[in-house]
Amino acid sequence: MKEANYRLLQYLAAAAVGAVIVAPQIVQVMQKRPTLSGTNHIPALSAASTLEKGDIVCQPGQVIPLKTGAISAGVEITGGRTARLEMSVRRKNRVEQTQRAATQSGEIKFPFKITRSEAVSSVCLRALDEKVAVVGTGLPYPNLPMSDKLEATFNGKEDNNLIALKFWEKKNKSVIQQINSMTKRASLFRPSLIGGWFYWLLMIAVICAWVMAIKVLVAQREEDDK
Questions:
Q1: CA distances from 209 to 48, 87, 132, 196, 214 (A)
Q2: Element housing 88 (H / E)
């Protein structure tokens, strides 16, 4: 009886230690965070365009995902200043939406309500204060389509640069909520026979293997105790 109680205490202690280790990970995967709905695949390598007050830089050829609730761009501002910028979404040279925001440096995010995902748009940034550098990369850049439609314009003229943009979903999501979309994305670059279901089976197989390994270890421990 004492031996059985001792073994029970061992199991409870192991379960408590496991809970302490696993609990923070569970909190992390269930915590809701800002979620990307996509990017324009342009790397943020350096300051692509430096804007003075009133200057405007536009990145054409953008297909913004339908579920987008915000668009962000990287900016660099010297002297610890707070600078204001205006972002607009344009289709066929017509401004459809305009938002303003302010930042000291880093990433600046503008809320938008995207109602058409397939329409090709231009995303423009206009400086409302002096000396604001917009982040992107210069041309030529490998592995990107080299066309006039992609090249950014500065005050209406070709700029020989590309502006890096990120598109954010309307609602924050946890990792758990994103698993389905993650499995679908993972299957995009695999053979046609492998779909999102394959990764679900793989996760189930890993969990089953983990449970079986624990059972084997417990059985070996019990055998050693005898």
A1: 50, 51, 54, 20, 9
A2: strand 83-91
Start-to-end C-alpha separation, the chain: 14
Question: Same domain, yes or no, for 117 and 76?
Answer: yes
Give the C-alpha separation, 98 to 108, whole Å: 14
Q: How many domains does the chain have?
A: 2
Q: Is the pTM of this model over 0.70?
A: no
Amino acid at 71: I
| pLDDT tens readout for residues 161-197 | 889 999 988 776 655 655 666 666 565 556 666 666 6
> Would you say 129 and 81 are in contact if contact means Cβ atoms under 8 Å apart?
yes
Residue 82's CATH number? 2.60.290
Q: Are residue 78 and residue 131 in the same domain, yes or no?
A: yes
